């Protein structure tokens, strides 16, 4: 269960490239997930991008991520639903 969703809006120059902002939220009241990007896809739909870095070999290493597509969709839906109307392309 997702709770306490906070959005820090991106700068205007970054918004032009589809970045809405950075998210912080709780999972099951036990873990805070921070640094998740909220972006708009090419079709205008909101999507989460999980924090990662490249290691010395160039491989992408996620600091946190859902374990399955079903989990990713469930978390994404809850986070987006918790945002204020009009955020990330949502209509009121």
| Biggest beta-sheet profile | 4 strands, antiparallel
Q: How far apart are the first and last residues' alpha carbons, in Å? A: 23 Å
The CATH class, by name, is: Alpha Beta
Mean pLDDT, to the nearest integer, reads: 91
In the CATH classification, which architecture applies?
2-Layer Sandwich
Q: How many domains make up the 3D coordinates?
A: 1
Question: What share of the residues does DSSP label as strand, in percent?
Answer: 35-45%
Number of strands: 6
Stretches where pLDDT is under 50 for at least 5 consecutive residues are none
Query: What is the CATH topology?
Result: Arylsulfatase, C-terminal domain
The shape, in one word, is globular
Give me the side-by-side strand order of the main sheet: 1-2-3-4
Order of helices and strands: EHEEEEEH
Key descriptive features of the protein:
6 strands; 40% strand; Arylsulfatase, C-terminal domain; single chain; alpha+beta; 92 residues
């Amino acid at each position: 269960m997702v709770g306490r969703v906070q959005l820090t809006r991106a700068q205007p120059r970054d918004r032009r490239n589809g970045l809405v902002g950075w998210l912080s939220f709780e999972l099951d009241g036990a873990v805070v997930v921070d640094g998740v990007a909220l972006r708009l896809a090419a079709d205008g739909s909101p999507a989460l991008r999980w924090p990662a870095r490249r290691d010395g070999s160039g491989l992408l290493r996620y600091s946190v991520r859902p374990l399955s597509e079903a989990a990713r969709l469930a978390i994404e839906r809850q986070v987006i639903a918790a945002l204020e109307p009009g955020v990330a392309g949502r209509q009121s």
